[in-house]
Specification:
The protein is mainly alpha-helical. Helix content is 69%, strand content 0%. Helix 2 runs antiparallel to helix 3 and helix 2 packs parallel to helix 4.
Length: 111
């Protein structure tokens, strides 16, 4: 490996690599959609009244499901970025969803 090769930035391979990149992107979008679904349920959970004491546990459980899904998504994203199939900005969506899920676990709705 020459010095010039070591300094050049990694690029996504052209041609056949485009299909692999698209598959990686679709997989990550699917995982982020599942995590977003759990997080949306956690965020939209509201108590039905003062008697509804299970709402806190429900919101925390949905946030936990979102957190686990997004941590898995972040790990898969790391693998795809390391393989130079995707760019580093793909970490942004799991990061935002992880922070939101943790915030909802810390501040759940109270009846």
């Amino acid at each position: 490996m020459t010095e010039q090769d070591a300094k050049s930035p990694a690029r996504i391979p052209a041609g056949g690599g485009l299909v692999a990149t698209a598959v990686c992107a679709v997989l990550l979008l699917g995982l982020n959609t599942v995590g977003g679904f759990f997080l949306l349920n956690a965020l939209l959970a509201e108590p039905q009244g003062e008697w509804d004491t299970t709402i806190t546990d429900t919101a925390r459980a949905m946030s936990l499901f979102a957190l686990v899904t997004e941590l898995l998504t972040a790990a898969v994203t790391g693998a795809f970025v390391a393989l130079v199939r995707l760019r580093r900005w793909w970490f942004a969506l799991p990061a935002v969803l992880i922070v939101t899920a943790v915030a909802r676990m810390v501040f759940p709705p109270v009846p």
